[in-house]
Amino acid sequence: MKNYYPILSLCVFLCFVSNIFAQQTLFGTVKDNVGDPVIGGTVKVLKGTEYVTGTATDVDGNYTINLDSGEYNIEFSYVGYSSILIEGVEVHAKQRNKLDVNFEGAEKFNFEGCGGIPRCGPLIDISNTTQGMIICSDEIRRVSKPN
């Protein structure tokens, strides 16, 4: 009987260690406002406001991320739409956790005028030093004309 104790102890230890280091999967599909898959959309995983990991959606709008159990904030972004932040997403142990997102309710940027080139918000926003936008020459001429 004493010969089995080391083997039994090793099995219990390996089961315990595998549960500690096991990661769960967060997966889902991201679609745009008309239900088409979002190709190359960004999925960011945040713990509070701290970046944990991220990925991009594939050609079918699918994503998969391996995470530890816990509560996360998930941010979805895609060119032409405002970002979607879903707070308090629970990732449960030993499960595949599904989170599908649709940009249907998200604000879509204005693509009218300028030959389809997006105009994202005001022409100049002096408080925003981290993001840029594409504007057309017609808008530059309109702003730079003397009164």
Provide tags for this entry.
4-stranded mixed sheet, alpha/beta, 2 helices
What is the H/E order?
HEEEEEEEEH
Which CATH C-level class of the largest domain is it? Mainly Beta
CATH superfamily of the largest domain: Immunoglobulins
Could you tell me the mean pLDDT?
75
State the major sheet: 4 strands, mixed
Give the total of beta strands.
8
Based on the coordinates given, report the CATH architecture of the largest domain: Sandwich
Q: What are the low-pLDDT stretches, counting only 5+ consecutive residues below 50?
A: 17-21, 113-120
Strand content: 25-35%
Q: What's the structural domain tally?
A: 2
**What gap, in angstroms, lies between the N and C termini?**
98 Å
Q: With helices defined by DSSP (H or I, 4 residues minimum), what is the helix count?
A: 2
* CATH topology term of the largest domain: Immunoglobulin-like
Would you tell me the structural class of the helices and strands?
Answer: alpha/beta
What does this 3D model show about the protein?
The chain is 17% helix and 33% strand. With 147 residues, the chain is of the alpha/beta class. A hairpin with a 6-residue loop joins strand 5 and strand 6 (84-91). The longest helix is centred in the N-terminal third of the chain and has 17 residues, at 5-21. The protein is elongated, with a radius of gyration of 23 Å. The N and C termini lie far apart (98 Å).
